[in-house]
Amino acid sequence: MMAALGISLRDPAAWVFLAFAAMTVASALLVAVSRNIIYSAYSLLLTFFGVAGLYAFLDADFLAAAQLLVYVGGILVLILFGVMLTHKIRDINLSNETTNPIVGAVIAGLLFLVLAYVSMRTDWQVVDRGPATPTTQEIGRAFVGKYLLPFEASSILLLGALIGAAYLSRHERKKEA
Amino acid sequence: MQLIQFAHGLLPFLAKWPDWVVYLAVVFLFAFAILNTLVAPLTGISTYIERRLAGRAQYRWGPNRVGIRSLLAAMPITRPISKLADVQPFKFIGSKIPGGLLQFAADGLKLFTKEDIIPAQADKMLFRLSPYVVMAGSFAAFAVFPVSFWCSAINLNIGIFYVLGMSSVVVPGILMAGWGSANKWALFGGMRSASQIVSYEIPVAIALMTVVMLAGTMNMNEIVATQRSGYGIEKAGFLGWYLFRYGGLMIVPFVIYFIGGCAEVNRTPFDLPEGESELVSGYHTEYSGFRWSFFFMAEYSNMFAVGAIATTMFLGGPLPPYPVQFTESLPMLIRFGEGFFWFFAKSYFFVLVMIHMRWTLPRYRIDQLMQLCWKVLMPIALVWFVLMCGIKMARMEMAAPAEAPVVAEVHK
Amino acid sequence: MPLAVAANNMPVASLEWFLLVGAFLFACGIFTILTRKNAVSVLMGVELVLNAANVNLVAFSRFVKAPATLGPAGIELPKGVDPHLVYGAPWIGGNVFAAFVIILAAAEAAVALGIILGIYRNLGDVDVDQVTGMKG
Amino acid sequence: MRYDYVGVLVFLVLAVGFVFIGMLAQRIVSGFLHTNRPNAAKLSPYECGEEPVGGTFIRFNIRFYVMALVFIVFDVEVVLLFPWARVYQELYAFYRTALFWDMLVFVGILALGLAYIWGKGDLEWVKTFEKHLSPAEKVARPHTKKEAA
After folding, report:
1. Cβ of C109 under 8 Å from any chain D Cβ?
2. Interface pTM (ipTM) of the complex?
3. Cβ(B145)–Cβ(B220) under 8 Å?
4. What is the pTM (predicted TM-score) of this model?
């Protein structure tokens, strides 16, 4: 029974995991269905936090902190700024309209079913990795070894993003003046 | 693991308990102790010290006077007793007690019993949730501080990176308060605060990364351990601290870190988000009573955290300025106290510096603030990072020239 | 000595649990992208999808069989040196990919929000149904 | 290692519980002392004692947003450089100076970006008005010249 579940309910850590997974799932659902865009954005905070927790359960310590630093401290703040800058209704309950929710739900539901079916039926080649080890230095070694080119290329990507974003915002300023 | 072994050594019967229960209990006690020594009372003490300093700086003596005598004199029934303070033995004792002590108690009582107002237009949920996020973000950073020798609540190997990540959780919390209050000042304050915190995070992170590069580890306990020796001396005392290493070159990242740290906790001269003359009091304008005090507590615990990070990364954390072998043979408990003393003294020193700065320097303008960050601190931090990498490279090259056997040095 | 009781050092839950959470995040993201009219909301959906992909990448990195080494083929390290200490543990690939996805997400968010701001300035609205300027 | 993250959870739970218990105690005390007496004036937005003017959510300066855009790029740079900084010392014996050049290329490309937005005036908080610029300055700053045209 326990083996079939893939989780041991007598293990206290399993309950923590379940709580985190439930939090992630529930807040992701709230992002999708909330009527208020600011609540959507703050559910996204919980989702990011829950995903960081999942990373910690997967022994990816560096990524868990990077998730907090980039997603919560960066992308979420950017999204919140975006919401606050572009709202047009002068009311605190910013509406967040949806179109064709039924079609969307059917497509998303089908996608979920397909993904769930595949992930449940595939015979994954699971191996025992041994006790958890710190990942930061492994990522660093990979960065200067096999993944050196993507590492350097990502700086060019970031340069492009920086110039692009600056260009778009400069466009704004020209209009303002 | 060390914590569990320590607990087993202290209380042998714990060995029968499951490990996770012992671990949870120990960490909980540790966290509880930090909350009740470093966060909550320290806020009160810092407020008291800040008041007294402010009173002195502004020739405003009130905060230095409020004491038992004024309390007694305030109530008709006890007024006769207050006259006793002019009688000799009491007069002498009274002159020895620092004034203003009761202001701190009165403040706590006032905050606790004050009316809790939630504006009618406010988004009630965000308004209520914000203190939780801000408090959790600022308290979680305390988990990895090495409060004494090899002793932090959690020995995370991503240490300083975790602190950066957790402290960035505060930003959405601040925006939450600003937006949820449905108040112009609060919204502006929240925007300014968030924008300021995220901007200054970059020079701060680069300055801290310089230390990580030199130490070769992100674990805060290990960073402290690398500061025991320096300049070729095994136990070097203060010479081993990163601030004094490399011929004083590390002073620049330290200064960048400290300026950025002051900006990140919104302290003067960077207190634009709370500038009274323009924004009333920033993102917590609409907060009152005990709910407000959590923001206050978070601000003061953040100040302490800035000092603690500076201490750990640049000033040897719990390491004393004299070589450690002087006290190495002392009993464990005394050594713990010694480490904690130095950690606390160094960290609190920075809090005092920040309080002094508040009453010394005028406030920046928003454009000056952003220019300082992006045009001064950021380029210097980057250039200094590269420079320190180069110096480190030169030193490693000298230590092991290219002809030497190559990978023997690869360790861990 | 992990907290999990699992004797074989496995994380508390099996791979499928993480994949299911990832799949659900993905479905939520797709639903958000498909149904929202507000461009910022659509961006939130994209972030959900990227997070879902990341959860899967990290889960595979933790569980699934990895190549023998990350090092270049044919180059011999001196004797006694563990190649994993130089090239990194071979299973780290998933984590590295997740890190690159995070970078991509940040770059994408910066540019996308710049574009959304442009749309807002031009049309006074961020409704994606209104953005039909390219229609022939 | 997995213990450590449960410890983080303990800290988070304690912080949240601290706020929760504090607010609960405050609620009880204020119920006991009847300090909560809301009225319309108290519940209106605070604008220094004046009647609130206009809507709350007025437009704010777009520069905040631009700063956030610039921030996120450098934030990611820092995240990428941390693993590099972590392994610099221990892998130096193997890669030698190549390791330093790897970093320098990475930082250099982003420094180019910083130089670009600096030169283009995106870091300026106060807008420059082209009419105050001398012709030489206009030549030096092509985008303002374009704006003037």
Report:
1. yes
2. 0.86
3. yes
4. 0.86
